[in-house]
Amino acid sequence: MLKVFRFLGQGVVYALIAVLLGFFADTPAYRHFDDDKAQLTLSVAHSGQHAGTCRRLTAKEIAALPPNMRKPLDCPRERLPVLVEVDLDGQTIVRESIPPSGLFGDGPSQIYENFVIPSGSHRLSARLRDSNRAQGFDYQRELEVEIAPRQRFVIEFRSETGGFRFPAAAGPRG
């Protein structure tokens, strides 16, 4: 008889914990930002150009290499940092020089940032430099956008598709 009460007591405690977890999983309601605001997301993962120039190996140098490593060019692994700028209605909201990732500085430069902005009509300008040029940018794009309240607008960079792109924006977020 004592075992029955013990199991019933455990069942009541577990049910109470489940009810409390369910209650606090949904309450209080959390909003990431106000109902009249929107979110702008910047996502870039891009490798800058090589930091140095490639050197053509001589036939003697190639022959001295193991067979699986024979290649005509010797290129440095290190990459240049990537400069990213984003303007919203003429005001710069991002200007960052992003160093390459990786142990030897040979990986892509990466940035992922979110900004809470007012909803409505905006002029967006995105620019990226991945070369060693002193001025100007290698990729740039400007456009006029209408961003709805609680909408997430994404700015992506994909060099294989020509640079900056603005995929279909996600709907309202809660």
Architecture overview:
The chain has 174 residues and is an alpha+beta fold. It has 2 domains: 1-30; 32-50 and 80-165, Immunoglobulin-like (Sandwich). Helix content is 18%, strand content 39%. It is built from 2 helices and 10 strands, in the order αββαββββββββ. It has helices spanning 2-26, 59-64; strands at residues 37-46, 55-56, 73-74, 82-88, 91-98, 109-118, 120-129, 139-147, 152-158, 163-165. The strands form 3 sheets. Strands 6-1-9-10 form a 4-stranded mixed sheet, with no helix packed on it. A hairpin with a 4-residue loop joins strand 9 (152-158) and strand 10. The mean pLDDT is 89.
Topology of helices and strands:
Elements: H1 2-26, E1 37-46, E2 55-56, H2 59-64, E3 73-74, E4 82-88, E5 91-98, E6 109-118, E7 120-129, E8 139-147, E9 152-158, E10 163-165
Parallel strand pairs: 1-9
Antiparallel strand pairs: 1-6, 2-3, 4-5, 4-7, 7-8, 9-10
Strand order of the largest sheet: 6-1-9-10
Which structural category fits the helices and strands?
A: alpha+beta
Tally of individual helices? 2
Q: What's the number of structural domains?
A: 2
CATH class of the largest domain: Mainly Beta
Shape: flat
Mean pLDDT: 89
Q: Write the H/E string, N to C.
A: HEEHEEEEEEEE
